[in-house]
Design goal:
The chain has helices at residues 3-10, 14-23, 41-56, 61-72, 78-88, 98-111, 120-134, 141-161, 167-201, 209-216; strands at residues 30-31, 37-38. By secondary structure, the protein is mainly alpha-helical. It has a two-stranded antiparallel sheet with strand order 1-2. Strand 1 (30-31) and strand 2 (37-38) form a beta hairpin. It is globular.
Amino acid sequence: MWIAELSRQTEVSVATIKYYLREGLLPAGEAVGATRARYDETHVRRLRLIRALVEAGGLSLARVRNVLAEVDEETREMHDVLGAAHGALIPTDLTATDQTRSRVDDLIAEEGWRVDSGSPDRMLLANALDALEKVGYHLDDDLLKTYAAAAARVANAEVASLPSDDRQRTVEATVVVTALGGPVLLALRRLAQQSASAQRYGKSPRLDCETAEARRT
């Protein structure tokens, strides 16, 4: 396909595509003459990945470059590449108290999770727990373990659904799900909370007329 078609398929402007090409974020197409090049599905996938990281993940192009470097790494073990890709999505200025970091370490040990001791996600969780403490809310161990059990179920399903026949597609899928799956989980959690609240307090949900009519038909 030509660059105009690549732009239409990915909804990324031609000018932006050319910028990504100059910056080395997008591999060059197959040269056809002095000023034209053909592009294929690999370019579509890469552009969609970049767009997800920039627009949904909120990453700078410098951090996107780091993620793409991990995606393209062919010599490291798959598990290490996935961990590095996750790490590139996490802010680098997180802090947490020693007590909360120990609590996170204990939780991981109790759950039997095989997580690297240097995983930045340990600090991410500890930072989130400390943020709750700062506003006067302590997330007790029972609820934290409930979260952990739900997270494990989701994670196992996600990993099981990853493509197994293409290393790069597997890493790309992991990065996209990590960057974009968070809002999906958040929305589902809020919907479930509304339902749980309605059941507990005996509140019937209100439907607008169009929604109600659509369900009846």
